[in-house]
Amino acid sequence: MAKVEFNIACTLCDHLKDSLFNGLNPEDLSRINNHKTCIQYKKGQNIFYEGTRPTGLYCMNGGKVKVYKNNVQGKEFIIYIAKPGDFLGYRALLSEEFYQATATVLEDAKICFIPKESFFEVLQKNPAFMRRVVQAVCHEMGIMEEKLAELAHKSVRERLAANLLMLKETYGMEGEGSTLIELALSREDLASIVGTATETVIRLLSEFKSDGLIAFEGKKIRVLDARKLAKQADLIIA
Amino acid sequence: MAKVEFNIACTLCDHLKDSLFNGLNPEDLSRINNHKTCIQYKKGQNIFYEGTRPTGLYCMNGGKVKVYKNNVQGKEFIIYIAKPGDFLGYRALLSEEFYQATATVLEDAKICFIPKESFFEVLQKNPAFMRRVVQAVCHEMGIMEEKLAELAHKSVRERLAANLLMLKETYGMEGEGSTLIELALSREDLASIVGTATETVIRLLSEFKSDGLIAFEGKKIRVLDARKLAKQADLIIA
DNA sequence: CGGAAAATATGACTTTTATCATATCCCCTG
DNA sequence: CAGGGGATATGATAAAAGTCATATTTTCCG
Question: Which of A135, B166, B178, B218 is least enclosed, having the fewest CB within 10 Å?
Answer without folding.
Answer: B218
